[in-house]
Amino acid sequence: MAKINWDEYKKYKHERPNPKQLDNFEILLEFLRSFYNKTSAFDVFDMLNEDELGKMMLDKRSISQPAQLEDFLYKWLAK
């Protein structure tokens, strides 16, 4: 499993326009989808769950299962 490259995330976050005013977690999800080409909620969940900061972001949103992240993504992308 790939580890999150937080330096690349910071570059991504500062270089992208933020017209939707996304929070850090939503920007991280965009980053994982674009930088790592992760499209599966299960892969994204595993990657976040194995990272200390990623795990804290999941816990903050009470996401403890891949299916819960999938629901979050579905609602977020439907905005």
What features would you describe in this structure?
By secondary structure, the chain is an all-alpha fold. The protein contains 5 helices and no strands. Helix 3 (41-49) crosses helix 4 (52-60) and helix 3 (41-49) crosses helix 5. The radius of gyration is 12 Å and the shape is globular.
What does the overall shape look like? globular
End-to-end CA span:
30 Å
As a percent range, the share of strand residues is under 5%
C-alpha-based Rg, rounded: 12 Å
The major beta sheet can be summarized as: none
List how many beta strands DSSP finds.
Answer: 0
Class by helix and strand content?
Answer: mainly alpha
Number of helices: 5
Mean pLDDT: 91
Low-confidence stretches: none
Order of helices and strands: HHHHH
Brief descriptors of the model:
79 residues
Give the SSE map:
Elements: H1 6-15, H2 24-35, H3 41-49, H4 52-60, H5 66-77
Helix pairs in contact: 3-4, 3-5
Brief sketch in words of this structure:
The longest helix is centred in the middle third of the chain and has 12 residues, at 24-35.
